[in-house]
Every structure is written in C-alpha cells, then in structure tokens.
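Q: Structure for this?
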Amino acid sequence: MGKTVLVLDDSASVRRLVVATLQGAGYSVVEGEHGAEGLAALDRSAVDAIVTDLNMPVMNGLDFVRAARRRPANRFTPILMLTTETGEAKKQEGRAAGCTGWINKPVSPPTLLQVLARVVP
Amino acid sequence: MTEGSPLDLSRFLPLFFEEAEEHLEVLERGLMAAESGADPRPFIDDCFRAAHSLKGSAGSLGLHVVVGHTHVLETELDAVRGGARPLDLALAGHLLVGVDLLRRVLDSLTAGGDGQVEGAAEWTQGAVSGAASPVEARPEAARGGLRLCLSTHADTFRCGLDPLPLLRDLDMLAGIVRADLAAIPELDQLDPTTCHLTWTLGLAESPPPEMVDELFGFADHLFTVEHLPDVAAAPQAAATPAVSVAPVPAHVAAPAPRPERATLRIATEKVDRLVDLVGELVISQAILGEVLHELGQAASERVQSAFATLERNTREVQERAMGIRMLPVAMAFDRLPRLVRDLGERLGKRMRVVIEGEETELDRSVLEHLTDPLTHLIRNCADHGIEPAADREAAGKPPVGTVLVRAMHQGSTVIIEVSDDGRGLDYARIRTRAVERGILGAEAALSEAETIELLFAPGFSTADTVSDVSGRGVGMDVVRHSIEALGGRVSMSGKLGEGTSVRMTFPLTLAIVEGLCVRVADTTYVVPMAAITSSFRPNPRDLKPVLGRGELVISQGVQMPLVRLSDVLSGPPGVEDPCRGLLVVVQHEADQAALLVDGVIGSTQAVIKNLERNFQRVEGVMGATILGDGRVALVLDVAGVLRLARRRTGSSRVRTSIALGAASCTVQP
Amino acid sequence: MHGPTLTSNQPAVADIPRQCLTFVLAKEEYGVDILRVQEIKGFTAVTPLPNTPPHIRGVMNLRGTVVPVIDLRSRFGMPEHPYDKFTVIIVLTVGTRVVGLVVDAVSDVLEMADVGVDATPDLGAGVDTSFLRGVCRSGERLVMLLDIDQVVGLDTGR
C-alpha cells in the first residue's frame, strides 16, 4: 500500500488506538499531539491523508485544517475529523475550513479503515 | 467497477456467511414443517424474509451466484405468501432441494471457490410442475425500486473529497448512475475547485438505510441524498386472488412485529476476555479478603463493610459472566431433524427424532464441538440401532423408529442422552466379536458394563459396518475421545431387542472452584471443596494395612482407602507416616477415600485453566490454576484420583487387565 | 512466499518457511519456522503433570495461560540437562495450542532464501527423522529443520 497518514490527538490512548489500527492495515503513520505539531510534521513528510481530533491544546483541529489547506501540497489532502460533536453548526464550520469527513468518537477501527479507504486516493 | 481502488468487501464476508446460515436454518425449518404436514402459515413470512434478506446482503457484496439462487426462493415464497400458490409437498420438497444447493454454493464460496455447484443452475431454471403462472406473482419492478439523487456541495473538492470512490461503491448495488452536468458553468467561468455535480441513481433494490448512511454518513456535510419517486413503480400487487385456502394473514400491511429477544452480536474473543477478567477479579478480591483477615480487628468497620459489598458484587459478576458463555443446546440440536430425515431416506428406514430439553444451557466452547459426536451417535442409531420397518413390526414395535435426544441439568453437570428404541445391545455377540478380534481372551467373564466398555476400545473402531455387531460398533472410541477432550464423560447402556442409550455428561463451566490448597513435599495441589467431607490427623490405631488392597483407614466409624497423592499423581513423596500428616476425606458419588497430604496451606478460589486448551486431558486433574506466587498448581478431579487409586491397588471394584490376545485392553469401570 | 533455492533432492514438503529461528541442542543446530515462535522465555517454574511421558516436563504459567513444556532432549532421546538459569524455553504456536520447548540455547534467525535445503538424509542414531522436514546448509553450518507439528503433535494431538 505505502500510504502515509498523519494522526493528531492530544489523548495518547486514542492516538495509540488509531495508530495501531492504521499500521495494522498497512499504512505508515506520523503522529502529533496538536495542530502545531501537525503542521511541523507536514513540513517534514508528505502524507496521503490526515486524521485529527477536533479539540486539542495549542492549536485545535479546525485551525489546523485551515492552516493545512493553505499549504499548496495539502490543498486537497483528505482530512478526517475525529470528534464527539455532531452538531450542524460544527459541520458547517468544518466544511468552511475544508474538512473531508467526520468520524465519531469512540473510534471504531473498522469504520475508520472503511472511510479512509474511500477518501485516500 | 473500474480500475483504481475498488472497495475491498471481503472483510464483510465472514459475517455474511454467519447470517446466511441463520437464514438457511429459518428456511429449512419452515419448509420441513410444511413437508411434514404442519400448517406452514406461521413460517411463511419468516421464510420469505430470510430469502429476501439473504438476497439483499448477497447483492450488496456482489455475490451474484447467491443472488440468482435466492431470487428464485424469494419469488416462490412470495407467491405462497400472496396466496397465489399453496405450499404443498412437492413445492416444499423442491424448495428444500434449493436450500441444500444454496448451502453448497455458500460452502464453496466460504472455501474460496466460485460458488458454482452442480445442479444449482438447473434448479434455478427449473420449475415445479403445477406452478402458478408467473403473472400472478408480484411484478418485480414494483418491489423495491429506488431512485436517489446525490448532490454535492460546492466545496466538495476543496474539502479534499473525491466523489468517485463512493459512486463505485453504489455500483455494487447494481444500479444505474447518471451524472447531471447541467450546473457546470462555461469553461471561462469555471473554478476547477468548485464542485457542480449531481448524480441520479436508479437502483433495482432499495439499499438498507444503514448502508446509505454508512456510505455517505461520514461526509454528510458535503453530500445530500434525496429519494425520488419511482417513475416506473407499478400499482400495488393485485389483490389476493380468490383461493380455496383460508386467507393468509395480512402481510401486505406491515406485519405485527414478532416478539424477539433483543440480541447482540459479540466477537467471541471479547466474551472470553471478559470471562478471564472476571476470574482475575475474583482472585484480587480473594487476596484482599486475606489481607483484611490478617489485619483482623485493626481493619476499620468501613473497610470491612465495603469489602463485604465488593464480595457480593464480585460473586454476581462472576455468575453473570459465566452465564454469557452459556448457550442453549438447541443450537447443536437444530440440525438433527434434518439429519434423521435424510438418513431415514437414505437407509430406507422410517425414523423420527424427539428432542427434549433443548433450552438446557451449556458452555459455548463445549457446544461448538458437540455437533460431530452427536452426528456420529445419530448415524449409529440409524445404521445399527433402528431396524427396518418390517422387522420392527414383526417384533411388535411401531414401524417408525424413535431417536430420543434429551438434555438436562443434574446437579453441577449437564447430561445429554441419545437413545433409540431399536435393536439394543447383544452382549453375547459383542463378546464373541471381541474374542475374534483378539481384544478379549476366550475365557474372560465380563459383566454387562465391562462388555460395553469393549465398544469403546480402539480395536472395535476398525470393524466395518457389519450388522453382526448389533447396536453400536463404529467409532465409539472416537466419540469418547471427543467428549473427554471437552471435559465430559460418555457411557452406554442397552437391552437386547429394546434399544440403546448413550449418555454424555459435561461439567457446567467450573471456571472458578472453591478449593483447599494442600501440600505434598514441595508440590501444591488444590482439592475442590465440594468434594471434601472432612479432614483429620489419624491415630495409629485408625490405620489398617490390608494385604492386596493397600492401606485402609477408619474415619468416624467408616472404613475407606488411604490414598497417597504422591503415588497416584507421580509426584515427589511426602510424609511417610500418615499420623504425621493430614488426611483429607473426599467423596465422589458413592466412593470415599482419605487423601494423605503433608499439610494444608489454606483455602482459595481457584480460577481453573483447563489443560485441554494447550495439552490434553490428564486423568485425575480437573485443570490447573495459578497461585499467588505465579506457579501453576494442579486442581484435582476427585473422581479421577479415586479411579487411579483403585487401579493401583487392584481393588475388587476394578477388573484388572483382561487376558491378552493380540492386544491388551484395560477395562475401566 | 519466495522459496529458497532448492537443490535437486528437495524435501517433498513445498512450503519451506521464509525465516527460521535456530537453536542448539546437544551441540547440533535445529530450526523452526519463525512464524510459529511466540516468544522466548528464560527459566520458569514448571509444575509436573501426573502420568505423562517423561519428555512432558509439566506445565508453566505464561502470563496467566497454562502451557505445557516439552523437554526436547528427552523427546529426542538425548541425555537430559537439569534446569538452571541458563535454560531457555521457546514458546510456539502449534495449531491452536501454545507449547513450550526446552532447548540448550537459541542461536539466530536464518533467512531461508539464502540457503540450500535438502531432504532429510539418514542421520543414523540421531534424531528420529520423522521429526524433521529437511536439512539446510549455510556455509559450514548444518541446521536441521524441525517439523513442529510432528514433534509436538505426537504428544498433544488426536
């Protein structure tokens, strides 16, 4: 497969689960704890998709998406938001920021992999 | 499907096959009921739904072979439930053949094959004579046709979403996708990052709502799915044509929901892990209890009371966790009627099966492995037990032979019995046969019980299906091995001319056993409390060695054998003089014995790890447990220990080795 | 799975493992398919089981699972070593079972693609050749490939 995914979440256990799920399915994974780390990671490596939490310290998910979309290399990189929030308002905000999709927490590994398979080119 | 990255649906196959099996069982039950003359009306709806669901899920996974086959079943069953045709013997039989073929198709697919099965194509194309003309069946176009309009938000591309893969997934539903390009502006005004596309999909079957949600739900901020009225929809099915059959209960309106127990599918590993954790919980609680005990008065009242609550809760969790793994034996018994029917047909014998106690529960792991031995036993009944109808009548028996399969709880065991009213056991002939095969010396005199044991000897399993050996003969040693590997026991009984009975006994999951830790030299054993009557240190006058029968001891006026655990369990020897050790009096059914140990360490809640999982059953050992220091201690099976002891001393309860022929065989009681 | 370069008298069994864990037993080297190896344990307390063949040492506690321990020296009829802190137990999966094998020492991992594998010759009074899948040579080394199912299966299988 050879695809790389960037995983951002301030909770180590969630990160661990997501990373393990992705690695188990053959993806390479780069991780970070918040948006700023995410941007730094994007500077260092090319990724095929991003999975990020919404609420993170230092730089939250939506700010990260906005910043990421301004980078030429990541204008169309699929970005999936992991979140417990499902309100319409949040989704509008997400769309305006450029989120590709939403995945509800608690993360179901099969769901994550299914959705990822559909959005990763 | 185009190249690129087609969605890999193979991970959904195992679940599909599981559900398919359930659907097939529903179909089989209903059709067999109809075949046996019962009123099929209560079953028809279920059968139809089963075929319909099966077709739907097969379709969404692209299993066209299955779809084609189930479509025929569905159509026929729909005609039946619409009153257009009756479910008579011929049709039921024909559909049962279809179910069989379908099962073989699924088996082929499960094994990685292509699902092509001989006879399946002919069956789907053939029709039962006297079938109602297809015109009366409801036209397919009216059923389930669906049009969806899929629109994308202008920001779709900017959000990094490419709609193409999702459309490919819809393709699996065998639909038609048409893009609506009207909204795309002229080239000089086009912003390539803005999405102007809409698609209309026409699907032959309506996908279940969950599936639509699953496909698009994650991006519902970008997609809108709208259901359009179906232009081609024909008016609702013609009114039920007048038939001589009593009106079918209204199925055109939504049928009243069947009361069903709410169930949940859980992966087995999760349940196993939970049960393991409960075991660990019990250990922790026990350790805590000991600590509290040591603290004695010093432990505050609040701690004591909190601990008491913990103990109660733990006990309940333990019971419930155990309960999760228990399933009704009906699951293993379900196939038996079909099996008996088929065997009867094949062997030209008239047989029926009566099932009792199918709601009796048994641990899942045992249940899963019960089918093979059960099938084996039923085959034996059919082959050797039940006589042909003419013989039966001549003997004054009803022409239809009965196979009785019973399950019941008894104390801490579950008993499953398979019996028939056939030929029974001819003890004389069995003995003769054994002598012929060199298993038995000609002069040996055996009781009935011992003769029966011969049937479990490996020598007998090589006997071909000869009707010489009446009653049983083929492969009982295999059955015994299977049952014992599951932690159970098997025994047989029978009367010449009247019938035979095979009884299997299983312990209810003894995952946690209250036991006494005892020490022999540096080895720790755990003796189940339930088997212990008392313990004491004997005086010399209580001991009586008897020539040829080992040592005896008198406890409270009762004489019983003294068993040195180190001898019976081939461990390092402990204290030599019983008066300097301790005797633990144990009992199993009518047998009692006094086990000699060096001393008692304490009581424990032993979480049993069975040895069969990674090794095999060891006589005298119920299982192993892990002590506080991490070492493994063996938990004794008192019945087995007593048996081993008797064998060593050659007590009169046991018949020692029978005179040899070419092979020897030690008969167990 | 890439097979090794096989010589003309290759073993009948076509699936030679890709990598083997090699270990030492009485100065000879043996190999097992690395995919079967679950872990390698040092000396652990073993509880003997009654009325079992002598090469079944007993059972040990592997993080809560009770696992049988087979002494390979005893299995192959070699003189036994007492257990000490240098004793090594290789924990393997055999079918659905987990089993421990006591060996003298563990060597390394052999890439089977780089070695030649021959059919098992008659080794004389050594190991019962029904336990072997083949013999492979890597330079000066001679490693005997164990058929784990045979080695263990005779004890635990039905």
